[in-house]
């Protein structure tokens, strides 16, 4: 005779997994937020010493041009300018220390998984604005070798921009597409396409420049960071107008090498 | 009337900004007075202050915008140049709509700031001149008698002496006498000057 005792733990295991995933998402979200906040406070804090340095220098130049100055006054002003340069340096050093804690880690991962995770963050925004996110990924895409948090950040940024670009089009047009294809044996191309207001021609060139923004309250940081993340992965990030109206951002990332 | 020397009032909570701004502006020959908070400026403020305010938008305690509001309610007409950081631009636009003089975004080019200050000072001296002229005119108006005032209103309205005489039921000669007194008291020589003086006050 055999006595079998069994308990179905599938449910419990599932709950644990969900909890763990949520925890992980929380950590990632907080890190994404910190990046944005950091960039913004960096700009604000650096403004003070930089403006002060410019003032001290301009004051010196003016007096020297006029030939009307006391040596000790100029010396004092230059010393204060040097102090302010040091203050700016300290701000930068502090920021760098914060970033250093997160060395990029590249690992093979499926794009679908990565898109899912980025979508989880974007969904709140999508629901709020009534935007439909359409993911169209071909089957059997090779895995990509990237730092997952970094590429998620790029995706999230592009998705959020896309959603924002559509906030003045009718609801039935608010659809954002995430697509992908393999371009050659080394790279995978991901496209994020919106049906929004589109980009002015001159902005196509400038939009990736740091501190350039087309949004009234934008910092001009997002796309600049995205581009350096993609370039760090030996990929490219660019933008094209969509024939049907709107904008499409495309980037490439390396795929896993097959050992043969 | 005592002449008050125009000064640039720098209100900023950052010590280096205040100090470097003074160095820059004094190098241009301006008189500069610094305040480390909106509150300390308010304590020092007097009605006869002349010049302009260079005001940092972001300060702990009272912000630049709140100070602007407060100054408005006190009837201050000193032009204000707001200094903003990146991302404060919508805030600055709101300030402009409320009638602030100008705003400049950090980091700014020195010449840009100096040009704005120049404009603000010109505006301030226009305001001061207008105030002085208005005061002078209302002083003169105050010296007119009731009858002279009536005659003046009708003259300015374009009525002829004959019509004025009929309307006020006095003789032409009396109208002419009143009219001459009005011109003398108001310190004007032609009808056009009189109309202009009265119009500026309205």
From TrEMBL, chain B:
Alphabetical GO biological process terms: phosphorelay signal transduction system; regulation of DNA-templated transcription
Any Pfam family matching the protein: Response_reg
Modified-residue entries (4-aspartylphosphate), positions: 56
InterPro entries: CheY-like_superfamily, Sig_transdc_resp-reg_C-effctor, Sig_transdc_resp-reg_receiver, Tscrpt_reg_LuxR_C, WH-like_DNA-bd_sf
Keyword Zinc-finger in record: no
Residue intervals of the Response regulatory domain: 7-121
GO molecular function: DNA binding
SUPFAM superfamilies: C-terminal effector domain of the bipartite response regulators, CheY-like
The keyword Iron is annotated on this UniProt entry: no
Domain annotation HTH luxR-type: ranges: 137-202
Keyword set, alphabetical order: DNA-binding, Phosphoprotein, Transcription, Transcription regulation, Two-component regulatory system
Top-rank lineage group of the source organism: Bacteria
Name of the molecule in the record: Two-component system response regulator
Lineage: Bacteria, Pseudomonadati, Pseudomonadota, Betaproteobacteria, Rhodocyclales
């Amino acid at each position: 005779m055999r006595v079998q005792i069994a308990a179905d733990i599938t449910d419990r295991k599932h709950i644990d997994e969900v909890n763990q995933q949520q925890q992980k998402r929380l950590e990632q979200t907080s890190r994404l937020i910190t990046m944005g906040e950091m960039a913004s406070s960096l700009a604000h804090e650096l403004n003070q010493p930089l403006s002060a340095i410019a003032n001290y220098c301009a004051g010196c130049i003016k007096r020297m041009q006029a030939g009307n100055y006391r040596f000790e006054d100029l010396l004092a002003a230059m010393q204060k300018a040097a102090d302010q340069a040091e203050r700016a340096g300290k701000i930068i050093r502090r920021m760098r220390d914060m970033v250093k804690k997160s060395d990029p880690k590249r690992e093979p991962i499926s794009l679908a998984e990565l898109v899912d995770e980025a979508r989880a963050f974007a969904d709140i925004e999508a629901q709020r604005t009534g935007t439909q996110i359409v993911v169209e990924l071909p089957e059997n895409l090779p895995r990509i070798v990237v730092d997952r948090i970094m590429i998620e950040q790029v995706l999230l940024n592009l998705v959020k921009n896309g959603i924002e670009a559509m906030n003045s089009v009718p609801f039935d047009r608010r659809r954002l597409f995430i697509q992908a294809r393999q371009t050659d044996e080394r790279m995978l191309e991901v496209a994020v396409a919106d049906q929004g207001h589109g980009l002015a021609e001159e902005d196509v060139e400038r939009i990736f420049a740091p501190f350039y923004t087309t949004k009234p309250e934008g910092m001009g940081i997002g796309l600049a960071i995205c581009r350096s993340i993609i370039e760090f992965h030996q990929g490219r990030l660019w933008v094209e107008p969509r024939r049907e109206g709107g904008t499409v951002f495309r980037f490439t990332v390396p795929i896993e090498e097959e050992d043969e | 009337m005592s002449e008050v020397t125009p000064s640039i009032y720098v209100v900023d909570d950052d010590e280096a900004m205040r100090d470097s701004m003074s160095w820059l502006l004094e190098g241009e020959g301006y008189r500069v007075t610094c305040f480390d908070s909106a509150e300390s400026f308010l304590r020092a403020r007097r009605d006869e202050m002349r010049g302009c305010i260079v005001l940092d938008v972001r300060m702990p305690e009272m912000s630049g915008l709140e100070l602007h509001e407060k100054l408005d309610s006190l009837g201050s007409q000193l032009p204000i140049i707001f200094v903003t950081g990146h991302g404060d631009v919508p805030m600055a636009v709101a300030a402009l709509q409320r009638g602030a003089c100008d705003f400049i975004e950090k980091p700014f080019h020195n010449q840009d700031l100096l040009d704005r200050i120049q404009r603000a000072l010109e505006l301030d001296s226009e305001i001061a001149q207008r105030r002085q002229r208005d005061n002078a005119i209302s002083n003169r108006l105050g010296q007119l008698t009731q009858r002279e005032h009536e005659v003046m209103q009708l003259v300015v309205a374009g009525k002829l002496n004959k019509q004025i005489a009929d309307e006020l039921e006095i003789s032409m000669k009396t109208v002419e006498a009143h009219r001459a007194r009005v011109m003398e008291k108001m310190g004007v020589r032609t009808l056009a000057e009189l109309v202009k003086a009265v119009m500026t006050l309205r």
